[in-house]
Design goal:
The protein has about 350 residues and is an alpha+beta fold. Helix content is about 50%, strand content about 10%. The protein has 16 helices and nine strands. Strands 4-5-8-6-7 form a five-stranded mixed sheet. Strands 1-9 form a two-stranded antiparallel ribbon. Strand 4 and strand 5 form a beta hairpin. The protein is elongated.
Amino acid sequence: MTSPAFLKPARAVTPMAFVRAIAKGYERYGMDPAEALKSAQITPRELARPGARVTAAQFEALSEHAMQELDDEALGWFSRRLPWGSYGMLCRASLTSPDLGVAIKRWCRHHRLLTEDIGLALEVAGGVATLRITENRPLDEAFREFCLVTSLRFMHGYMCWAIDSRISLRNATFPFAAPPHRDAYAPMFTPEVRFDAAQATLSFDERYLALPLQRDERALRTMLKRALPLTILQYRRDRLLGQRVRELLRSRAAEASTAEALAGLLNVSGRTLHRQLHEEGTSLQTLKNEVRHELAVEQLRRTNRPIKQVALAVGFRNEKSFSRAFLQWTGHAPRDFRAQGL
C-alpha cells in the first residue's frame, strides 16, 4: 500500500476522538493501551487534549498494533471479537467477482458471518448506488461514530483498490449530530456530508459498479500487509473522471467555464484534475473539443439556428474560430456540413 496511487496527507488530520475510541476498546477488554499509543508516538497528554489530531502514519501504527494485541479488528465495537484476518477474509471472498457491483454484494453478504450487530446493503436507484449500514442493535456511544465511519471508509477504500480507481462520492450521511471535528469528514469522504440522518450511507455513480476488478491474489497478499491506509488515505485515480467531465461540460457548461470551476464541481483541485486526466491519456482541452464537436453536430443537424448562434452556443467567441475548429474536426465547413445533411 505504499503505491503513489494513494494521496498521503502531509499534516495531522485524523481526529483524536478516534484514538480515544481505540483506547476505549482496550478498556473494554481490561487491557492497557500504553504500548499501542507508544508505537504511534501519542502521549497521554495529547490523548486528552480536545481538538488534537494525529497523522495518517500515527493512526495506522496505532490501529495495527491494537487490532493484533486485542485480536479484534473491530476494536471493541461489536458484541463479539472479529479476530485478526477477518477483513482479509472479506477481501478474499470478493476478489473473484466479475465486477465491482458483485464484489460489494458479496462483501455485504459475507459481513453477516462476522457480526449481526450491523448489516450492510447496496441499493441502486436513479443512476446512484448507495451503500447503507443498518444498526441491528444499539452500538455503544463510545464506539458508534468510529465504528460507522471506519466501516464505510474501509469498504470504500477496498472498492477503490479493487478496481484501481478512485470512487468519487456524491454524498455521505451519518445518524448522529455533527461532531466537533466535523471538518475531518470532507477529506475522509466528500464535502457533501449530512449529519442527523436516518442511517450511515455512501452514495456514488452507479457506473462504477460495472467496472471490472483489477486485482489478483498476489496483489491482495501485498495489500493486506498494509491494508489500513485504505481507511485513511484517498485513492488518486478515477477511471470515470473523463466521463464525468464530459457530462458537466455538456449539462453545466456555464458553471464549468474554467478548469478551476470544473474542478470545484468535481471536489478536486485544478492541479489534481489536470493530473488525473493526463493519467487517463487525455486532457481537459481534448474533452472540451470533443464535447463542442458533439454539441455542434447536434445543433447543425437538428436546428436551423444561424452558424454564429451555434458557435456561441457551443462555447466559441465568434463564428470564424468555430468554423476553423469545425473544419479540423470534420473536414467540412459548418454550412457545407448542414447543407449536405452529413
